[in-house]
From TrEMBL:
This is Ferric reductase. It holds the Pfam family Ferric_reduct. It is found in: Membrane. It is a multi-pass membrane protein.
Amino acid sequence: MRAFQLSAATLFLLAHILLVVPFVPLASVLPAGLGALSMSSMALSLILAARWRVVDRLMGGPDKSYVAHRWLGFFAVGGALGHWALASSFGAGVLPVLAESGEEVGTMAALGLVILTAAAMVRAIPYHLWKASHMLMGPVFLLASYHTFFVASPLAVAAAPWTLMAVVSIVGLAAWIQTLLRKRSPTQRVTVSRVTRFEGGVDVTLASDAPLPPFRAGQFATLARTHARAEAHPFTIAGGDAWSRRFVIRAAGDWTEELVRDVAKGDALRLGRGVGRFLPRVDADRPEQLWVAGGVGITPFLAALDRMEPDDGAKITLLFCIRSRGSAGGLVDVERHAARLPQVHLTLLGDLEGKRLTPGGLGEIARTMAPEAEAYLCGPEGLKTLVTTAWAAAGRAGKVHGERFDFRGAYGLTDLIYIGQPYLDAAWTWAAPKRKDGHAPVGP
């Protein structure tokens, strides 16, 4: 996956460079291409942020949209900085009277993009402040659009790159306006009917006076307080029916810490519809599956177990990785379902008991499964990396399904290191012979 992502990123970059080659002088190819890269990346980020259903569906789910949003954010910043450092005025511009202001506005846009990106990387900033600052990406995009079309540029009006940037800017602007003007996503008022706290989290069931929209096991929904402009946070649905929803929530931030600490029976919340495409197979004609859950990552599988009836279909191997029994929300129900479902084989791996998931142990399990077996993962990124690596090493051809629930923001310092490290490694390898020659002894 890493090689694929890096290849796609490189092709995305080269496509913008090649786009401008026939239309600008050679000296302007790189700055013009980087400027186009930044503009299209910002526009696509706004389109993904608008959460159009057709876009989420094409991306393979909202979590995939968020990952692409993150990558595009880095491209936007990198392209803007490269363009800012290399570009120079060329010609008179579309409207000469606005050419100078176009250059000044471009500088403002680049600075704003860098500042907002830096703010998004600081996870210590409270969610509501981050969200407010991130909404300023729209005005920054407007400034960048003004710069693109009114600065003195080597791109001729109506040339292919100019036209493409115009279309991209219009669509990006429409997405941002739609995000600002749209009403809150449809929600229903629900009441907390049951609260069970566990170490570091809470298991809560919500009841509704009216029928709730149907959901599929593995999907998530948003929860929010009932006051105006309340923040909505996504959580995987752990179960429920037409009149209720269950969530197992771990304290992982200021909002969830408050919820875990204060939620009580009778409290009112706003519940969103079920969305997402992480859907473990529960029908009788399913393929053999490996389910791996870490902590509250058990929630999609708990909902799936709740929907299942005993059958003689393909085996499901469920590995539940926990710190301890006291910190494992929903554990009693997981064990109850495993006892009633002969097709489910449950293994508990607890850190405090010294039972941990290892590459060797996972490889042994994978090699006993059918070549076309599929894997479903929900948990920390380290767990996902371990499973995907062991799955590939065992030669399993079935797909590995997973979701990345990083809804906090579009950026992360680890992502920046992840993207840049292969290029740094390549540069270091390229320079190795020169370093060696530079330190070679001189003389006979």
